[in-house]
TrEMBL record:
Keywords: Membrane, Transmembrane, Transmembrane helix. This is LCP family protein. Residues 456-521 are annotated as: Disordered. Residues 459-498 have a biased composition (Low complexity). It comes from the Bacteria. It comes from Arthrobacter zhangbolii.
């Protein structure tokens, strides 16, 4: 007997679920929503109780199989999260999962349509029909739509990962750490080739995910190369040909003149930079990531901006005045305080160094890196995945192997919950701007300090304790409160100023000293800063902007 045949004793109120003809209108409406709910929670159940039982049983088998796979995936993710990510990012595995999601989306949608047929809308009251239809559409969007969107994201990720990441053997941690070189490449129209003006080495503990960033100034000189580097024979005493051999020139020098020293490499310049940073820090750099700074703003916009607590005013540098080494007055100013920056302002915040030093810029770049890591949360990835993936595909190049992407993502998730430690191989961590440390670096000191930083980064923070007094010596007593000043204004050993008619004390001969009134410093505004730039008062601007390297993620 099928769903359209009359039951024995048709017309009697026996089974309103399967035979709703004789049921009251309120029961029919309730029945409709129950069947929709069953299709939502247990696809196939509505067909078993009120429709085609064979179809329902098949759908239930698929449902239980999918639930079992989901539960198994959750258990594996709790035990080995990297394995699940590896499967999702593997080319063929992700393709199969994408196809399964697409088929499930279509199948679930067909079940909802079949449930609508079982509900038999003509039997419903006119007022109930729009509500049932609206519920059906909403549930189809929630279920089939979500599965279809998941399949779409997997397809986008497959294309993105395939274009960004390399194919090659997996990397093993060195001394328990992964070390990646991050470079911000600036290949502007006024430059020959690519110059990595932002150079950072990120070292991550393979177990805990604790990250440490070592930033190297662009004007660092005399970089050493490890003995196993092909450049060691060319520069046995380091990259030391004078001011032309600052480290950010190495990339293009090797690309143009020594590419043959790195046969088979897709990017000899990047390989050379890895060797140089390895020699500087005394660590084995295992991979590189290059971000095109010209497209950096696109990635920030794709993320919806980043929030930075900026310490001081930062100029947006204007074009260079022809025939000089000066720039026109800034095109704008980024104010201090916590703010969400779009791509344009975040780019200038990270790259501006006008009126200040490279070390101010390095500090701001570190803050931008931290803000990006902190704000790349699951919600941002889910809602902006296509834009982020598209931007990443255009501006990121790396030699990191795609097959190890799962372990790297797992490592990034661990690092996200930890505070990133920072060190600059130059001021303020090594010497001062006047010491020329980056010109004549002490590599023994750098290597020792780097190891100390890594060792300290994984140590739990211990609250500072006051030192105990030496044996036989009493603990210092709390300072006695100062005596209150006499109420009548009389001298209590300190001149109050009232006795000299508002003067600032007396000279040795008794002559009253009167300081001239101090002029109020002008408020720091965009107009004032722009005025100083127009009159080329670099000294005052340098003093006012000296705090623009003090920042933190918002």
């Amino acid at each position: 007997m099928n769903e359209h045949s009359a039951a024995p004793g048709a017309g009697t109120y026996t089974d309103p679920v399967r035979y709703p003809q004789s049921a009251p209108p309120a029961v029919r409406t309730k029945r409709a929503f129950i069947l929709l709910l069953l299709t939502l929670v247990l696809p196939g159940a509505a067909q078993v109780v009120a429709g085609n039982r064979r179809l329902g049983r098949r759908a239930l088998r698929v449902t239980f199989t999918v639930w079992a796979l989901v539960i198994a995936a959750v258990i594996v993710a709790l035990v080995n999260r990297a394995l699940v990510i590896d499967v999702l990012t593997h080319g063929w595995a992700s393709f199969l999962i994408m196809m399964v999601l697409a088929l499930l989306a279509v199948g679930w949608a067909l079940l909802f349509l079949n449930t609508l047929r079982i509900i038999r809308p003509p039997l419903l009251q006119r007022g109930a029909r729009p509500m049932v239809a609206a519920a059906l559409v909403a549930l189809m969007v929630l279920t089939s739509g979500s599965l279809a969107y998941g399949a779409y994201l997997l397809n986008v990720s497959r294309q993105t990962f395939g274009s960004i990441f390399a194919s090659g053997p997996s990397l093993d941690p060195v001394d328990g750490r992964y070390n990646f070189l991050l470079m911000g490449g600036d290949a502007g129209e006024d430059r020959t080739g690519l110059r990595p003006d932002s150079i950072s080495m990120i070292s991550v503990d393979a177990k805990t995910g604790q990250p440490v960033t070592f930033s190297i100034p662009r004007n660092f000189q005399n970089a050493l190369f490890p003995t196993d580097s092909p450049l060691h024979e060319i520069y046995p005493d380091g990259y030391n040909c004078g001011d032309e051999c600052i480290i950010n020139s190495l990339y293009q020098t090797v690309t143009e003149n020594y590419a043959d020293l790195y046969p088979g490499s897709a990017d000899p310049g990047a390989e050379a930079m890895m060797d140089a940073v390895s020699g500087i820090l005394g660590l084995d750099v295992q991979g590189y990531v290059i971000v095109d700074m010209d497209g950096f703003s696109t990635l920030i916009d794709a993320m919806g901006g980043i929030t930075i607590n900026a310490g001081g005013w930062v100029p947006i540098t204007a074009g260079e005045i022809p025939g000089t080494n000066r720039h026109y007055p800034p095109d704008g100013w980024i104010p201090p305080g916590t703010q969400t920056m779009d791509g344009y302002h975040a780019l200038w915040y990270a790259r501006s160094r006008e009126f200040v030093t490279d070390y101010h810029r390095i500090s701001r770049q570190q803050c931008v890196q931290q803000a990006m890591v902190a704000q790349m949360d699951p919600a941002t990835l889910l809602t902006r995945f296509q834009a982020i993936a598209s931007a990443g595909e255009q501006i990121v190049r790396t030699d990191l192997p795609q097959d190890q992407l799962g372990s790297f993502v797992d490592l990034a998730l661990k690092a996200k919950n930890r505070t990133m430690e920072r060190m600059t191989i130059g001021p303020p961590d090594f010497g001062s701007a006047a010491d020329n440390f980056v010109t004549y670096p002490d590599f023994n000191l750098i290597h020792a300090r780097v190891q100390e930083k890594l060792a300290a980064s994984n140590q739990p923070a211990v609250p500072a304790e006051e030192p105990a007094p030496p044996a036989g010596e009493a603990a210092p007593q709390e300072a006695a409160p100062q005596e209150a000043a006499p109420q009548d204004g009389s001298d209590a050993g300190i001149d109050s100023g009232a006795d000299t008619g508002g003067t600032d004390g007396e000279a040795a001969d008794g002559t009253a000293i009167v300081e001239p009134p101090q002029a109020e410093e002008p408020a720091i505004t965009v107009e004032y800063l722009q005025y100083l730039a127009e009159i080329q008062d670099d000294a005052t601007l340098g003093a006012l902007l000296n705090n623009n390297g003090e920042c933190s993620p918002g």
